[in-house]
Amino acid sequence: MAKLSDGRPDVADLLGLGSHSARKSYYPELSARLDELERERNRYKWLFEHAVHGIFQGRMNHGILAANPALAHMLGYEDPQQVLWSQTDLAEQLFVGGAAELARINAVLREGHGLFGYETRLRRRDGSCIDVLMNLLLKPDEEGLVEGFVADITERKQAQLRQQQLNVELEQRVAARTAELLEANRHLQQEIRQRERIQCELREARDAAEAANQSKDKYLAAASHDLLQPLNAARLLISTLRERPLEASEANLVERTHQALEGAEDLLADLLDIARLDSRAIRPDLAVYRLDELLAPLASEFQPVAEAVGLGLRVRIPRLAVRTDFRLLTRILRNFLSNACRYTGQGRVLLGCRRRGAHLLIEVWDTGRGIAADKLEEIFLEFNQLDADRAAERKGVGLGLAIVERIARMLDYRIQVRSQPGRGSVFSIEVPLAEYVAPEPVARPRETLGNPLPGRRVLVVDNEPDIQQSMQALLAQWGCEVRVAAGLAEARAQLVGWPAELLLVDYHLDQGANGCDLVQNLRGESALPLPAVMITAERSEQCRRQLHEQGIPLLNKPVKPGKLRAVLSQFLS
Fold first, then answer.
1. pLDDT value, residue 445
2. For residue 4, what are the contacts with CB-CB under 8 A and spacing of at least 6?
3. Cβ atoms 424, 311 nearer than 8 A
4. Beta-carbon-side half-sphere exposure of residue 510 (alpha carbons within 13 Å)
5. What is the rounded distance in angstroms from the CA atom of residue 291 to the CA atom of residue 316?
6. Between 20 and 30 A from 224 (CA), which of 51, 86, 213, 301?
7. What are the pLDDT digits (tens) for 211-270?
8. Residues 32, 37, 41, 43: is their CA dihedral positive or negative?
């Protein structure tokens, strides 16, 4: 190996290039190595200049030695040479924290050789600040050389700040809404307590009303019997007087008394029916009835009524059957016929039927004064009567059609009214049809001419002496042979040797006895069928059902003489 004059080896010899042969041997390899190093240097240079984040090299006690364009643009400069600050410039122009922050960074680097994830704020050229995330790496073998990587996190910080603000606002809104809900809940609890108090008061008021209503019903039931008994006796006596020849002045007084009693009876009966309908004491008892069973008794009842006021009554009864409550439907039709006879001055009244699919339309036509179109709805109101200027011609207080409306609503029947003032009215009710079953053939009774009542034997059983006397006087005037009894023992005694053809029995008798038991006992003791008619002020469903099961027709007190005569004629013909 060649040596220099001072004895040191030659550099060429150290590199293996001391001789020509050696140079020729290692040159290609060295050239390739130098090219590779140049390419690597260019690649790092390209990455350094085109990196997205800022990159710099420097020493904290001297300043920044090199910086890439991204860092310059991040800080608001166009040329990286403009950010090659000294240590003093770093403290004054770059770090917002100044010399104190720079000293803390140096201390951390000396202790740990690196600072990673360090968030700080840097000044820009225009005086504004940006938030950055820095990673600093100290190279100990290069005398404090620091490589730094800087990422702009301003948007993230602003987003975090906005998120914090939103969180604060959300918490404030939640707190405000919570306060509102608490206040609303407090008001709601107050309302609930108030409603509970009101409901409690309403329940107490309802219970009191129901108790009062029950008390009223009991009172009406008790009072009706006491009121209807003397009214029934008076009606029978007045009817007896009406059929006797009297002087004109006396006949006028009797007629006026009859009208007053009739109005009182109708009013009391209507009040009792309204009370029972409102208290739901009436329950429909649906069954299938032939139209002749329904309409024939009404025709017999109202034929003399129509004749008495100079009207003609025509009845058309087809061979059909309906499913209904006999008593309630009869109550509706009786009201229609009564109003037709009452408010028709001259002409006629027609009771007829029309078939409408699965229903039957039962209609009552009259040729009366008629009703104006704007008054048709009012006639079904309680205590409402039309033609107030003709009050002297009316009876009652206008409860009849109100009762009709309630019964129809209970049965779910439709009522219709058509009318033309001056020409008349048509009241109709729609009833469901049922399968018609023809009546069993019976032996036709011997036809009699004229009045069938004279000479017929009738036993009247009633515990009221006034009723006994009144009924006896009226029936005797009709030509009947009448005997009276107050109970079962007297009835037995009267029937000895005197076979009665018909029993007229009161339902309520003395000592808790009732007319149904009396009729059963007399029928059991007699070889004759003993037809019977029950007369009572009792209007309960139990009483009506019991009489229906035993096949005993019912007449409610006060008994209308015309209806009583029609029933007697039907039984004794």
1. 43
2. 10
3. no
4. 11
5. 10
6. 301
7. 776 676 666 656 666 666 777 777 777 777 777 787 877 878 777 777 777 767 666 766
8. positive
What residues form DSSP beta bridges with 315? 351
DSSP label at 273? H
pTM: 0.46
In angstroms, the CA 309 to CA 341 distance is 8
CA 262 to chain centroid: 44
Q: What long-range pairs does 508-517 form, CB within 8 A, spacing at least 24?
A: 508/225, 508/463, 508/536, 508/537, 508/538, 509/461, 509/463, 510/463, 510/486, 511/487, 513/487, 513/488, 515/461, 516/546, 516/547, 516/550, 516/552, 517/488
Query: Residue 145's CB: how many other CB atoms inside 10 A?
Result: 15
Q: What is the CA angle 384-385-390, rounded to 5?
A: 150
Using CA atoms in the order 528, 534, 540, 541, what is the torsion angle rounded to 10 degrees? 40
User: What is the structure's pLDDT at 361?
Assistant: 93
- Rounded to whole angstroms, the Cα distance separating 59 from 54 reads 16
Structural tokens at position 9: 């080896």
Residue 5 has pLDDT above 70, yes or no: no
- Which residues share a beta bridge with 434? 321
- The β-bridge partners of 66 are 57
Q: What is the pLDDT of residue 448?
A: 46
